[in-house]
Write a structure and sequence with these properties.
By secondary structure, the chain is an alpha/beta fold. Helices cover 24% and strands 27% of the residues. The chain binds acetamide and zinc ion.
């Protein structure tokens, strides 16, 4: 009865409601949006009102944006009939805002101009993206919002390829529209020095230029080798005035620019100009541009005080340009060979009572930290700065996975998360067929969106040390503004939502739906973007001793079709509706279809080799490595063989034997067991020294079938090898495989250290 009355009431009043009310497609998603009745139109009678003088630049920013899309000049005249009011309200959280749009006007409240600025960004996302003659009408609504993390960053490497300040400003504009607040500017690296330093003119006269290898973005290493030195014409740098202009531009967008000056490694370009700062300055680095041509050293000599003088001089000029609290001092991937063979470095190790080159690196960073602290700034560095002892006040940028971040947070150091997966936006996001060449890896939009910056290893107290996260854009393969846009759109907005929106607000489908409107805006603005990852994900799962395969796709409104015998799938193939049971060997191929069209250039493909243990539960005596978990706990019984892509389909074990026990669910008659392993010499992965295969019917008493010794040489670079035993048919319910781990062999860079074991499948016939 009540219910009917309610329906009736709705029917009567419904003309008063606008049922076309639709939540705006704001990214990052605000914490709360309440839609109300009515509309407000921004027109020539609209003025901006604010009492606090510090809001003047924010008002100018909004006026400029409105003028840009409509030609309308908002007045700052108190007598304006319609008002957009900015109100400072100290009770609102830092960077948070309240945006209230009614038929009468718009109010943005925040505790600071930054919060007002973010309120403006939300408002702008409800308006047309480009110049329009249509009225600027916005739906009445109330938004209450604040960010989850304080470090919402994007990085850009301008060393491997140079990007002009116009492109940098566009990048900052994009960041601001998604409420990102930290721009990590990777200004120096082996590819070229990019900042004018008045005391060291050769940095920009020589180290900023290299041999032009247009069209071969990365192979300039090789090209430079035989280069005509007169062709060292590729490069560029920012004058100090230009860098200051970028800092000022960013400040208006409430973005802090954190400059990075690499040390003590990744400095080949410095050594090209000032070879005396390297360990063995006997190398002839020759003319500008050929700094990869000889046996190049890329490290500052840590035993030479001139290195520190140079860096301190450089940092003094850097700090005069960049007001940021943080100075990024690099610290990654220091190749220690030159230090090992340098008398000065070795003397430093002795005199300072250091144990080894790791501690020498730590000495280097701590010495620079002291200098930076004395200037009232703080250092941040890549996670290698943990090695040999972390500098007392350093913040750690965790890029080699999350491990460095976890370690640093547990030591009560601040941390910024940028794990290669999924925060490196130089990796593929789709394809890879049809995509521009990328450095490798696969960080799709959904993977970025599903990223959780607080590692699960941290408790609540430790989590507070995670300042946030950042997307990194290394530019070895990215030479143009168009390509740069393509790599960050739409991964930048996805990461922005991860960093801004509360965890409860995050929902992939909802994000993907809002994103479609942003795609329209990108197109209108002429921005290049990746429309989607159309490669179907094939996900094996074991359920009750059976192997079920789930297919999913990131494509908006995509439908999946598949075949099981290797045929090319089309929109007429089998539609995917539920997990597929694998009960025979198949070649699965799947495509996603959007609006009747097969998307992507190539179907996703997976061969499943059926056997008796497929889908069985596997238990391990020693745990599988967190980094190489394959497809999940039952990777060894999912019918999927590993490939040369080591991050996929393999279970990795480091320093421990693999002891895997399979429960086949019931007694089965078996006559052959094979266990597949990988040897990848350069990745420290070696075949086990022996593999012992046992069977049991009760899971307690096991009978050894065979112990098989490794017949393959440890010097083979890459081998896929199955340890196999055949025997007279017998019954077994359980199978136990013990693979003996080894150390890396003599002559290997890791000689004597623990090797990895990589296993992909236990095949039971
Ligand atoms: C890095 O990617 N080498 C920080
Ligand atoms: Zn040295």
């Amino acid at each position: 009865m009540q219910f009917n009355k309610f329906i009736l009431l709705l029917a009567i009043i419904s003309p008063l409601f606008s049922f076309s009310q639709k939540a705006p497609s704001i990214i990052p998603k605000p914490n709360s949006i309440v839609l109300n009745n009515g509309m407000f139109t921004i027109d020539k009678n609209t003025g901006i009102q604010f009492a606090d003088k510090t809001l003047k630049p924010t008002a100018v920013y909004l006026s400029d944006c409105i003028k840009h899309i409509s030609g309308i000049s908002l007045t700052q005249n108190a007598g304006a009939k319609k008002l957009i009011a900015f109100v400072i309200d100290k009770s609102i959280a830092k960077e948070g805002y309240q945006l209230n749009i009614t038929e009468k006007g718009i109010t943005i409240k925040a505790s600071s101009p930054t919060g007002i600025f973010y309120g403006i960004q939300s408002l702008l996302q409800t308006l047309p993206a480009i110049r329009t003659n249509a009225p600027l009408t916005v739906q009445a609504m109330q938004i209450t919002d604040q960010p989850r993390f304080q470090w919402r960053g994007m990085h850009l490497d301008v060393s491997r390829h140079f990007f002009s300040i116009e492109i940098i400003k566009e990048y900052l504009d994009l960041m601001a529209s998604y409420k990102l607040n930290t721009f990590h500017w990777h200004l120096t690296d082996g590819g070229g020095w990019r900042l004018e330093i008045k005391q060291y003119p050769k940095l920009t006269e020589q180290a900023a230029w290299r041999v032009d290898a247009w069209g071969k973005p990365w192979s300039w290493y090789e090209l430079a080798f035989n280069a005509d030195k007169n062709r060292s014409t590729y490069g560029g740098y920012y004058t100090q005035e230009q860098a200051k202009e970028v800092v000022a531009y960013a400040a208006k967008l409430h973005i802090t620019v954190v400059p990075e000056i690499e040390m003590p490694g990744h400095s080949e370009e410095v050594m090209a100009a000032y070879p005396q700062l390297s360990c063995h300055s006997i190398f002839h680095f020759g003319q500008s541009g050929d700094f990869f041509a000889s046996k190049m050293e890329g490290n500052f000599c840590a035993g030479n005080d001139s290195s520190f003088t140079f860096i301190q001089d450089v940092l003094t000029e850097v700090m005069a340009i960049f007001p940021s609290n943080y100075i990024h001092i690099g610290g990654d991937e220091v190749e220690k060979e030159s230090w090992k063979t340098c008398a000065k470095c070795q003397l430093r190790i002795k005199n300072e009572g250091l144990k080894n080159e790791e501690e020498l690196q730590s000495y280097f960073i701590k010495r620079i930290e002291k200098f930076v602290l004395a200037k009232d700034r703080k250092i941040i560095g890549w996670d290698e700065i943990l090695e040999g002892g972390l500098a007392p006040t350093a913040t750690v940028m965790s890029w080699r996975g999350e491990k460095g971040g976890v370690e640093a947070a547990k030591m009560k150091h601040f941390v910024v998360m940028t794990p290669g997966s999924p925060c490196y936006f130089d990796h593929y996001q789709a394809g890879p067929e049809g995509e521009p060449q990328a450095i490798g890896g696969f960080n799709s939009l959904m993977k970025v969106y599903n990223y959780e910056p607080i590692p699960k290893e941290l408790n609540e107290e430790e989590s507070k040390f995670v300042l946030g996260a950042q997307g990194n854009v290394w530019t070895e393969y990215i030479a143009t503004a168009e390509h740069l846009e393509y790599m960050v759109l739409p991964r930048m907005p996805a990461l922005a939502e991860v960093l801004w929106s509360s965890k409860e607000q995050r929902n992939w489908d909802d994000f993907n739906s809002r994103l479609q409107n942003h795609f329209v805006a990108f197109e209108q603005k002429g921005l290049h973007y990746c429309a989607g990852n159309y490669t179907v994900n094939i996900v094996p799962n074991t359920v009750d001793g059976k192997l079920l395969v789930t297919l999913n796709s990131e494509a908006w409104n995509g439908k999946i079709f598949y075949t099981t015998h290797g045929e090319e799938p089309t929109a007429q193939s089998m539609p995917y509706t539920q997990p597929i049971l694998i009960d025979s060997s198949i070649e699965l191929k799947a495509v996603v279809v959007v609006n009747g069209r097969v998307m992507g250039l190539k179907a996703a493909r997976q061969i499943f080799t059926f056997h008796q243990a497929m889908g069985s539960e596997v238990k391990y005596t020693f745990p599988v490595s967190d980094y190489y978990k394959g497809d999940g706990p039952n990777t060894l019984t999912d019918g999927i063989r590993g490939t040369a892509i080591i991050g996929k389909n393999w279970h990795g074990f480091s320093g421990k034997d693999m002891v895997a026990t399979i429960d086949m669910g019931s007694q089965k008659s078996i006559h052959k067991i094979s266990v597949g392993f990988l040897q990848a010499y350069n990745r420290w992965i070696f075949l086990p020294s022996s593999v012992t295969i046992e069977v049991s019917n009760d899971g307690v008493n096991f009978t050894t079938i065979q112990a098989i010794n490794n017949p393959i040489s440890t010097s083979e670079l890459q081998v896929f090898y199955d340890f196999t035993c055949s025997f007279a048919s017998r019954s077994a319910h359980y199978i136990r495989v013990t693979a003996k781990n080894t150390n890396c062999p003599e002559g290997h860079p890791g000689a004597g250290k623990a090797a990895w074991i990589f296993a992909d499948e236990i095949i039971v016939e």
